[in-house]
C-alpha cells in the first residue's frame, strides 16, 4: 500500500469553498527507461484519480506517463454537508488504493 497524504479542513461552513490537496507515494515508471540490463523497465503508473464527496464525484483526473513520481493533486470544492470525502487512485498492475476523510459542515 502506498503512502497517501491528504490535507483538507476538518470543518467548514456550508457553501464555503475548500481546498483539498492529495499526494501519494508512487514511482510512476514510464516504461521508456532502460534498466541496468539495458531492457526497458515495465510501465507502472497511476492512471486515474477520483474524489467523491458523500458518493458524488467532485473531481477526477486521468494520469499519463509524463506525470512525476509521487503525484500531487490540488483542487477546490464547495462544502455542502457533513460527510466523507473518498479519494481513489487506480493504476497499472491492478494498483488500487482508497482513503477516506471526514468533514463536518456547519450552517452558514
TrEMBL record:
<dbReference type="InterPro" id="IPR014756">
    <property type="entry name" value="Ig_E-set"/>
</dbReference>
<feature type="domain" description="Sulphur oxidation protein SoxZ">
    <location>
        <begin position="9"/>
        <end position="101"/>
    </location>
</feature>
<dbReference type="InterPro" id="IPR030995">
    <property type="entry name" value="SoxZ"/>
</dbReference>
<dbReference type="InterPro" id="IPR013783">
    <property type="entry name" value="Ig-like_fold"/>
</dbReference>
<dbReference type="InterPro" id="IPR014880">
    <property type="entry name" value="SoxZ_dom"/>
</dbReference>
<dbReference type="Pfam" id="PF08770">
    <property type="entry name" value="SoxZ"/>
</dbReference>
<protein>
    <submittedName>
        <fullName>Sulfur-oxidizing protein SoxZ</fullName>
    </submittedName>
</protein>
Amino acid at each position: 500500500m502506498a503512502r497517501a497524504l491528504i490535507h483538507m479542513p476538518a470543518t467548514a461552513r456550508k457553501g464555503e469553498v475548500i481546498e483539498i490537496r492529495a499526494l501519494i507515494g508512487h514511482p510512476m515508471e514510464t516504461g521508456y527507461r532502460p534498466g541496468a540490463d539495458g531492457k526497458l523497465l515495465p510501465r507502472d503508473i497511476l492512471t486515474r484519480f477520483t474524489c467523491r464527496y458523500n458518493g458524488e464525484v467532485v473531481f477526477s483526473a486521468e494520469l499519463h506517463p509524463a506525470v512525476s513520481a509521487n503525484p500531487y493533486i490540488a483542487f477546490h470544492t464547495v462544502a455542502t454537508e457533513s460527510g466523507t470525502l473518498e479519494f481513489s487512485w487506480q493504476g497499472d498492475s491492478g494498483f488500487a488504493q482508497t482513503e477516506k476523510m471526514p468533514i463536518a459542515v456547519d450552517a452558514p
